[in-house]
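Lab notebook page, bench 4
Experiment: in silico fold of construct C2
Operator: M.H.
Input chain length: 248 residues
Purpose: comparison with the prior construct
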Amino acid sequence: MITVVLHEPQDLVNIAHVVRVMKNFGVRDLRLVNPREYDAYRVEGIAHQTQDLLARVKTFESLGAALADCVHVVGFTARGRTAKRNVRRPRDAAAEVTALSQGGPVALLFGREDRGLANEALDRCHRIVTIPSDPGYASLNLAHAVVVMLYELALARGADDQPFKAPRRPAEPAVAEDLERLFADVARMLETIDFFKTRNADGVMRTVREIGHRTPLDAREVKLLRAMAIEVVKYGERIARSGLHVDR
């Protein structure tokens, strides 16, 4: 029940970027009020695989008509206003929007790229959101402002608690015996390339151990690192048997 409303958007590319952001965050309803240009086919060429969202886009001749069925309207502006407004930051507004959207459409209202929302448009808003930014260059790109708010809405809906996708091939933690084998193979590898010729072997290997213990490594990673070290040793042995000289 959350809808993005663009009031008099001027650039079709900006509309396309907003469509892409909406697709990213699962917001499906876009309303355009007097867009200077709009062509769904061209937008889809910029924001790929958004046909489902574009099929739902509605255009309106007036802002009043676009907001008529909304139970809550949140306007976005970068400019401070002398008029008394119910001002919020995105995170605070997101919690309220999430709750109120259960009762009906909630509009996120964004103004045109060159001058934002006029006072007459802000008068229609229940809340005003200002995204904190550098006061010397406060105005955000239209799609950037939309993505900030939709991200905060995603967090308010609990998206941050979703688990990461599990690895395709989960691996068990490496046991101490596997790590000791790895360290031994690394030491042999470093000896093969004369790494200890000008370095203290004990000090180097102590650092290698610290790196291995810090991560920590899983069993598959240990096997891969051991295989790399073993191949270096085998290569050195082949070079030695052939009598070739290898610059280091």
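Observations: The chain has two domains: 2-161, 176-242. The chain has a mean pLDDT of 92.
Next step: discuss at group meeting.
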